[in-house]
Structure formats: structure tokens, C-alpha cells
Design a protein that fits this description.
Layout: E1 8-14, H1 21-31, E2 39-40, E3 43-44, H2 49-60, H3 66-82, E4 85-92, H4 104-116, E5 122-130, H5 135-147, E6 153-159, H6 171-179, E7 183-188, H7 194-204, E8 208-211, H8 219-228, E9 231-234, H9 236-241, H10 253-258, E10 263-265, H11 277-288, H12 292-305, H13 310-324
Parallel strand pairs: 1-4, 4-5, 5-6, 6-7, 7-8, 8-9, 9-10
Antiparallel strand pairs: 2-3
Helix pairs in contact: 3-4, 5-6, 12-13
The chain binds zinc ion (ZN).
Residues 12, 14, 159, 187, 210, 268 line the site of zinc ion.
């Protein structure tokens, strides 16, 4: 079996960033919105990072109602299924849906319905704060999140511009989520260096880090992450497309893995980065010589770090092991 066909667990996937271009083009056509400048030949187009953000924003404006989000979740999970993903966690951003946080419950309920339509992919949701909107908005987002928990909403995290604000300012928001029993992750160590990772670990106390790859620049930090068992949600294709590393050959995922750091593999915003889970697996096999043993190891790490209950984890592990025998 080619490694790209193995069953996969994905922990780091932004809902809007995973939107299949053909789905968004269809939704835009229904609404009479012209996206021809940003979707060409079934691909999102952009020239550099600022243009990427503009394209992302232009596409996201088409998502207007709870029902649009229901259909989006269904489209994303159908795509995940086609990539051989058996378990995925989707980052949701309550500040991006509707006109205020008061609209959030209706959107989340619609997204649950979208996930119900694709039972073949076990799915959980991670509510996220947007770092560059500041600590007050993060706290309000956490409060809105814990006030309306649904069966799949099991995690809390933070994305956005890592260069803004100190991690410590966001501790109150993370405390609210942790006290409500949510699993905790945060983006760090993507554009920020080891200090950003260390601050996030100290103040936000996540069990996982989104990216975290730049920890490699500090051997003591690598040792700490390995010793504490902090799981890295690594997105190699995303890092290369956004210029964190010049090429996959330069990417530290293999060195982190060999150092005993629990690493996993995800796609972040796959159609924007012209990647997919199959492509990530194939690329890692080609560049680092990863075989089934490495992919089995990272998938076990991912399932053990998943924000799901013990019974679901056990069922998934069985499904995974049966498929890999
Ligand atoms: Zn991300």
C-alpha cells in the first residue's frame, strides 16, 4: 500500500481555509458574487502573503448564513474522507461568523448538522480566538464558547498574528476554556521563535501546539517539549508555502521526530497551499524516507492527543489498527 493511502488523523485544519474551491465557486454563483479573480481553474490564486490574505478574505465573504456553514462543513469533511482521513479536528472562529458573538450558537448548531452528514469522518471542533483582535475579545470568545457547548465542540485554541501581544495576556481566556473541560492548543512557533513557544507553554498551558516547529532553534526547548509530551500539530506544506522554510528538505519535522518530540501531520489551509493529506504523506516519504512505521507512529500520537472522549479514541484506534494490519 502506498503511504498516501494509509488512514490518517488530522488535528490542524481551519474550516474556512479548508473550503474546496469548487464548493466556494458554486456558493458564490448562487449568491451572484464574482470570484473569478481569486479562483482560477479550480484553484485559489495569489502572488504573495498579503495577496493570500486578500484572497482568503474575498472568498470568506461568500459565507454568510448558518446554512452556508452547514454546507461548508459537509463539503470539507467529504474532501477529508476522499483523502483517507478517519478523524479530523476543525478550527472554528466565532468572531468570523455572523455580525456578533450572539450569532455564534446558530452557526455552531448548523456546523454540527453539517458534520452529521458525513459520519465516516469522526470530527471535533476547536473554537479559536483570533490573537490580533486582542485579549478582551479572546476572553469574550471563550465565554461565548463555553456558554454553548455541543457534542463536537471539545477544544479551544488561538490563531492569528503571533507577533502581536504577549501570550500571558490571553491566559484568562484559556483558563475559562480549560475550566469548562476543553482541550487546549495554541498556534506558536510558526512565525515566532522559541521565546514565543516558551511563553505560550508557560502561560496558556496547552497540551498541543499549532506548528511549534521553530522550537528546533533551541535544543533545551526541544528537550522540554519532548519531556512534557507536548504534541506538535505540524503543517509542512503550509510552512514551505508561507516561507517559514525554503523547502521541505529544510523543514525540521524529521529532526523533531528523531528527537523524541511527538509530532503529527496536518494541512492547515490545504487548497490555499496547494496541498492535501495524501500529498503531505507522499512528500514526507520522498524527502525523508518515511515509511509506514513513521506514519503509524505519528497517527498513534495524533489519536492519543485528539480532543475526544476515551470511548471514541478506543474505537478510532481499533479502526486505524484494523486498516493498517
Ligand atoms: Zn493554523
Amino acid at each position: 500500500m502506498p503511504v498516501a493511502d494509509l488512514p490518517k488523523t488530522e488535528l490542524h485544519l481551519h474550516l474556512e481555509g479548508a473550503a474546496p474551491p469548487e464548493f466556494m465557486a458554486g456558493l458564490a454563483a448562487e449568491k451572484g458574487v464574482d470570484l473569478s479573480a481569486v479562483i482560477e481553474d479550480g484553484m485559489y490564486v495569489y502572488t504573495d502573503f498579503p495577496h493570500f490574505l486578500q484572497t482568503y478574505e474575498a472568498v470568506s465573504t461568500v459565507l454568510q448564513t448558518p446554512d452556508d456553514y452547514r454546507r461548508l462543513v459537509e463539503a470539507v469533511l467529504r474532501h477529508s474522507k476522499s483523502e483517507g482521513v478517519i478523524y479530523t479536528e476543525l478550527f472554528l472562529a466565532p468572531t468570523l461568523t455572523g455580525t456578533s458573538l450572539a450569532d455564534w450558537p446558530a452557526y455552531l448548531d448548523a456546523m454540527e448538522a453539517g458534520a452529521d452528514a458525513v459520519p465516516e469522518v469522526e470530527c471535533r471542533f476547536i473554537s479559536t480566538a483570533v490573537r490580533h483582535l486582542g485579549a478582551d475579545m479572546a476572553r469574550e470568545t471563550a465565554e461565548a464558547t463555553v456558554a454553548h457547548l455541543t457534542p463536537r465542540l471539545t477544544g479551544w485554541g488561538m490563531g492569528g498574528n503571533e507577533a502581536l501581544f504577549s501570550a500571558a495576556e490571553f491566559a484568562p481566556a484559556f483558563d475559562i476554556a480549560r475550566e469548562a473541560g476543553l482541550g487546549i492548543t495554541t498556534h506558536a512557533g510558526e512565525f515566532g521563535g522559541p521565546e514565543s513557544v516558551r511563553e505560550s507553554l508557560d502561560h496558556l498551558r496547552p497540551t498541543r501546539l499549532g506548528h511549534g516547529v521553530r522550537a528546533i532553534e533551541d535544543p533545551a526547548l526541544v528537550d522540554r517539549i519532548a519531556a512534557e509530551g507536548i504534541v506538535l500539530e505540524v503543517n509542512p506544506g503550509s510552512n514551505v508555502m508561507l516561507g517559514v522554510y525554503a523547502s521541505l528538505d529544510d523543514h525540521p519535522i524529521d529532526r523533531l521526530f528523531r528527537s523524541g518530540v511527538p509530532v503529527t501531520v496536518s494541512t492547515d489551509d490545504p487548497p490555499y497551499f496547494h496541498t492535501s493529506m495524501r500529498k503531505e504523506y507522499a512528500d514526507l516519504a520522498r524527502v525523508f524516507g518515511w515509511t509506514r512505521a513513521e506514519f503509524d507512529a505519528i497517527n498513534r500520537v495524533a489519536l492519543n492527543a485528539a480532543f475526544c472522549d476515551a470511548a471514541t479514541r478506543a474505537r478510532l484506534m481499533t479502526r486505524f489498527e484494523e486498516a493498517t494490519v
